[in-house]
Amino acid sequence: MKRNILKMTTLGFGLMTIFSLSSCDDDEMMVMESPMEKTITFENIVTLKDFVESGSFQGTNTPVIMPGESVSFKFIAGKAQSLMFATMYGASKDWFFASKQPGIKLFDANGNAITGDVSSVVLLWDNGTKDNTTGAAQNNPIAQVPNVNASQLVKLNLSYDIVKSEFTLTIANTSGGTANETPLSPGVWAVSNYNGAQLLNSAPFFTPNALSNPEISDIAQMGSITKMVTKLNANTGIMTGLSPALVVVYSGNQNPIYQAGQLDSGNGLKEVSQTGNVMKLQTTLKAMSNVKGVYIAGNAPLAPGSKMMTSFSFTPGDKIAYVTMFGFSNDWFYANEQSIDAGTTGDLTSKTTLFDSGTGVNQYPGAGNRQSLFGGTPQAESIVISKVGTQYPVPAVQNVLKVTVN
């Protein structure tokens, strides 16, 4: 009897021990599986640049453009952007040709490209740094040269490639045989960056009725473009805004937002990459069985120097993915290329890649008239999702976007 009681007692302790351990494991599991929360932050750290494109031009046979000669160059621009150029009136002490500020208007009120003869916008300016007779140094403000019709001395003609949003400007020296016959020096040109509301530089190269600067003075006095080219190079570059970012928490091994090497699935990525609208993608993701939650950071385009963030909930084993539009493009988006555990903390920028959704024909970033920045709609295409290549001088990811989780 005592032996049986001992057996039962021992069995009872064993069951209690098992139950106790089991209960402990269940409690720990419940704690582990309780939702946790983190915050993901997206920062637009791109450097602002005055000009989206710039360059120089010179004669074909010699750098100087003589009467009867012409020169052409290509540039890309969207609605609201304009072209500024400058070249020395060679037969002077300090005069130069340039257009009105902020430059040559390229599109009419209806958004149609302006083509043909645009010579009427050319003006002849006195740099104010040399006496027009003796060449002695002066310190007068830049002013228009009176009684000279610049459009009779220099002819400008624009042509336009609508697919590329690319213009060609031809500058012809037509001063031969006039009272103001002159050679033209090598020159410079630039297209001001546009941020969706205004040009970043509305008075490129010089400011009328103000004192000159060393760069335009070298052009006006010597026909030397070296200083201006250096300044333009330092202030020219692609920049961008970012769309509100979508963040998805999911289970499994497949990123639910996109699959590189495949065609766009129609789940809403096209809308994000072309217009920055995340609503369709948000709705599609919420209906997926492996999606735990969908979150939106920001509610408006993210300008350089700004940040947006959102908190998200997850349980161990979950993963996160995110997407935001490269705003100054036709159909590009930033997304994590590598799989990311939802519990990860720290800087995720190195896991981020710039992709082309393959749904719209590309144009020069920040200068393509079919980009949503200019109220356009991309020309449709259907190619697989891929990394953005080196066709355009796009800043590296880490120079545009910073992604962190805390």
Automatic annotation (TrEMBL):
Database matches in InterPro entries: Spondin_N, Spondin_N_sf
Protein name listed in UniProt: Spondin_N
Native source organism of the sequence: Chryseobacterium indoltheticum
